[in-house]
Amino acid sequence: MGRRTIIPFGPQHPVLIEPIHFDLVTEDETVVDAVPSISYVHRGLERLVEKRDFNDFVHIADRICGLCSIQHAMGYCQALETVMSIEVPERALYLRTIWAELGRITSHIFWLGVAADGFGYESLFMQSMRLREAVLNIVEETTGARVIFGVCKVGGVRRDIDPETLKGIVQRLTTLGADLEELTAVFINDYGIKHRLEGVGFISREEAYTLGCVGPLARASGLDIDMRTIGYAAYQYLDVEPIVEQSGDCYGRCLVRIREIFQSIDLIRQAAGKIPDGPIDVKVKGTPNGEYFSRVEQPRGECIHYVKGNGSKFLQRFRVRVPTFTNIPAMIKVMKGSQVADIPNIIITLDPCISCTER
Amino acid sequence: MSEPQEIILIGKNELVGIVAGLFAEGHRLVQISCTTLESSYELNYSFDKDYRFKNLRFTVTQEEEIQSISVIYPNAFLYENEIHDLFGLTIKNISVDYHGTLYHTAIKTPYSIENCPVPVPPKPKAEKPQERGEPEANQQQPEASKQPEE
Amino acid sequence: MKSFTMTKTVIINLLKGPATLMYPQRKRTFTPITRGKIEIEYVECIFCGICSKRCPNYAIAVSKEKKEWEIDHLKCCMCTLCVDVCPKKCLLTDNHYSPLVTEKKMGIYKLGPAGP
């Protein structure tokens, strides 16, 4: 029975992109317990629905998080459209899907860069960011900004993409795919990365299910939970297969995210081939009266938006349950029993998005 | 594009029994959320299995105590601590209890009924309500002042 | 056994050229729809104040009696809601970002009847 020391991890750490704090109780190098502590960026966004009417609140929902911004706006708009029984035109659904997949590519490439930086491979981090610039340029040309998209609104989308631009986007993404093959070959084959990631942070399939894991964390342990198969937005017309690995360790999560990038490029190509012509929005009349849970697949997992209206212009309640919040207990379970030097690796493969967690 | 979602109203004391049954059937806990009503709180437990969404719902007042389900579902402790910190409800026997230090906010329970009263819904009308120019912080006065007598 | 792998990498990198933008020698090209900053056609404005009431960040302040319109560029988050709701369509999005300032109150841009 060794002597127990408490090591504080975070909120400032070179590995973390956003502040989160863990108190690690260790006995000589093995972590015995971990106590998380959040609320460094709590902004109380859920109470802003009392002051902003439901049409304007889309702009606030966009800004809950920088990496998953379009999916938050999409989830919110979907919830309201179901409550008010609005039929969104098909072209708007396809456009939302294309932007959502572009957001997913951005987020996963960013994760690759941050993970490489976490192991110490700094120039690999810079190469990933360089490839991400190509995607951010596409986003800027079609929406107007690089990070916060600002294109969703209740009843459709605010901007259109013309067909030549769509063809250009597909071509550019195909060239990007070739560059990405080269980059991800390093992640998959390099001996140093494999040694640091294989066998680390293992979650078995049953544990992942009862602990409530979602997203790439669950899919790397063999669970095929992917909200896109429900068929919201234009996913009902596209061919989506959840990408599942059986290994359950950090290396498996890395592989899942890499394959999801290529799946997203393929989904954009499918959507650009099938997109119909037509209007991009419908006029919104009336006020929301009712409630609904809307489920969206963000880059980090399943996100739930709960909306409750009581007939006035201001919503009564808006609640977001983000995937990182659900994955934290699983992470704590994984951290018990691992070495202190593996903790940064485990936390990076969790992919925490703390500004979502404490909206 | 909506999927079928079930909402089941239960009593407060049946909660743990029904949750244990769902756990045995293989559901996973998705979320626990809380909404303020006129003078009570409404708790909503969501479960999912094979993409079918199921909700259990019941109402409590400020003084009542709720039994925690973190014995059955270990990941419920974060949701229950959050509800305790933001709404001020008492949940007993949580497996990891922060005693109010999970969220550090300027005021004690920012989402509870005293700090965040439920807005009064507008009276239903036969024709469309008029569009108002300025938003209000709280719908304290309903739009009855502009509506014609029914 | 592989030989000269590093030399191949070095030669490829030298021939490809720099990976960055080489700012400030080459300026960044903005797209036509980039959301840079909000500008107003002052002569068209009727000072109704709708942009000020709907702004999510309270960045715009309008005064009807003094005929003044001011925006705090540092608070504005470029959601372009004001551009959409203006009844006279006198608000525009410029595609260059607002200039850098050293103090918070220097970000306020005010237009009155006498000029800025």
Average pLDDT confidence of chain C is: 83
Number of domains of chain C: 1
* Low confidence ranges of chain B: 126-150
**Alpha plus pi helix count of chain B:** 2
The major sheet of chain B is characterized as: 4 strands, mixed
**How would you describe the shape of chain C?**
elongated
Helix content of chain B: 10-25%
CATH topology descriptor of the domain at 5-92 in chain B: Beta Polymerase, domain 2
Question: Which regions of chain C have little confidence, pLDDT < 50, spanning 5+ residues?
Answer: none
Distance between the termini of chain C: 72 Å
Give the terminus-to-terminus CA distance of chain B: 36 Å
Could you tell me the number of beta strands of chain B? 6
- Rg of chain C computed from alpha carbons, rounded to a whole number of angstroms: 23 Å
CATH class annotation of chain C: Alpha Beta
Strand content bin of chain C: 15-25%
Ordered list of secondary-structure elements with their pairings:
The complex is a heterotrimer of chains A (359), B (150) and C (116).
Chain A: E1 4-9, E2 21-27, E3 30-37, H1 57-62, H2 69-83, H3 90-119, H4 122-143, E4 152-153, E5 156-157, H5 163-189, H6 191-197, H7 205-210, H8 216-219, H9 250-274, E6 289-298, E7 301-310, E8 317-321, H10 323-335, H11 343-350, H12 354-357
Antiparallel strand pairs in A: 1-2, 2-3, 4-5, 6-7, 7-8
Helix pairs in contact in A: 2-3, 3-4, 3-9, 3-11, 4-5, 5-9, 10-11
Chain B: E1 5-9, H1 15-25, E2 28-36, E3 41-49, E4 52-60, E5 65-67, H2 76-87, E6 90-92
Parallel strand pairs in B: 1-4, 5-6
Antiparallel strand pairs in B: 2-3, 3-4
Chain C: H1 5-16, E1 37-40, H2 50-54, E2 60-63, E3 68-72, H3 81-85, E4 91-94, E5 108-111
Antiparallel strand pairs in C: 1-4, 2-3, 3-5
